[in-house]
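Usage

Read records sequentially. Each one opens with the input sequence:
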Amino acid sequence: MSNKNIDSEILNKYIESKQNIINNLDNNRLLLEEEINRKKEEINRNKQILQKQKFKKSLLKDQYNSLLRILKERGVIIYIKDNNYSIREWDNLYIKKEKNKNFIVSKNGNVLNELDERISKVFSKEISSGDYRLVVTRVENKKIKIQFFIGNDK
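and closes with the structure output:
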């Protein structure tokens, strides 16, 4: 009878050991399911954020393209002070970059004025590629009227 008790005891220990392994695996499964659910929620939140960002990007791109179209068609008028530059109406001007700033320069190389920082930032690609025109449209006693166009339609 003692053999039966020993066998029964070994069997009970084995069953208990396997039950512990099953319980541990079950706990791990529950933890992993919770982690999966958290990750799914995070993915859904990120998808929503991505959709909002795509929408904002689309709006900004539309605004940029509208502004670019207006600049191509009508240009932007820039006024600078006339310090007796030898500039005449319909002279072409240029943009020269120095120390991270853009300057309006005459055909003689005289620096006339710094280009507005907002224009420089927004149209940096076009300016660096030379895809712009600066034309003097009026020279008055104390100011020079310049028209800035994007798109080099020479």
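Summary fields computed downstream for this record:
- DSSP finds three helices and six strands in the chain.
- The chain has two domains: 1-74, 76-150.
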